[in-house]
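Retro notes, item 3 of 5
We never archived the inputs for the ribulose-5-phosphate complex last cycle. Fixing that now. Sequence and ligand:
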Amino acid sequence: PAAASHATPPSASESAAPPQDELKRVAAHRAVELVESGMVLGLGTGSTAAHALDRIGDLLRCGVLRDIVGIPTSEWAAARAAAAGIPLSDLNAHPVVDLSIDGADEVDPALNLVKGRGGSLLREKMVEGASRRFVVIVDDSKLVPRLGASGLAVPVEVIPFGYALTLRRLHKLFHGVPGFNLKLRTASVNAKASTFEEDGFELEPFVTDNKNYIVDLFFEEGIHGDLNLISDEILRITGVVEHGMFLGLASSVIVARKDGVVVMDK
Ligand code: 5RP
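Structure as it came back at the time:
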C-alpha cells in the first residue's frame, strides 16, 4: 500500500472550507510545482487538470517556465492547452514524457485509479503510461477503499463495430457479481441511457476522440478480486480497446482536503 506523507496545513486563503473546485485548484497548483523548464509534459483532461493547464500557461507567459512541450490526452486538453499558450506535440515525436499531471475519478489505497468519466481513458493511458512520472491530482472525494466503490462507472472503450456483442460479452464476464450493471454511454444527458437487454438498445452513443464507444460498468459494492486478472479478462474480449482502470501507473497522488494537502507516494 502507498504511504501517505507530508500533510501540509492549509494557507489562510485555503482554510475557509473551500468548495470542491478550490480543492481541485490547490491539488493542481501543487503538482505544477514539479514542472521544470524543458520538460515534455503529459496534459490531463477534466476539471482538475484544467487548473494545471491554466497554471502552466500562466507560468510560461510570465517567463518562470520555458521550452515546455505538451502532449495532450484529449482533443479537449489540446484546445484548453492551446488557449493557455502551451506548445503542443504528440507521442510520435515524443515517445517518452517527463511528467504527466491528470485527475482521476477514483483512487484506491494502492494508488490504482479509475479514469475516463470524460471519455478520454485511451489517450490518457497511452500518454501517462509513457511517462517517467505520473502525478494524479484529486480532491479527497475521489478516495475509495476499492475501485468501483463510489458507484461511478468503470468505463470500457469499445469499437463501434459489433458493440452490442462486445457489451453482451462484458455482461457475461461479470454475470453473477452482486449489484453489477452496465450501460452504453449516451451522447447527451437528454438521451435515454441504454441498459443491457436481449432485445435491443437505444442508439445515440457517446463517441470518443478515437471514434469509439464507451460501455460503463457499475459495481455496487466495488470491484472484488485480483484487479490485474480482471483487467486481462476485459482486454481479452475482442472489440474492447481499453478500460479505465489504471493499475500501478500513478507515481504519486496529490490529495487536496479542507485541512490541507496530502501526498500519497507509491
Ligand atoms: C477524463 C478523466 C478525468 O481525469 C477524470 O474524469 C477526473 O475528472 P475531474 O477532474 O473533472 O473530476 O479521466 O477522461
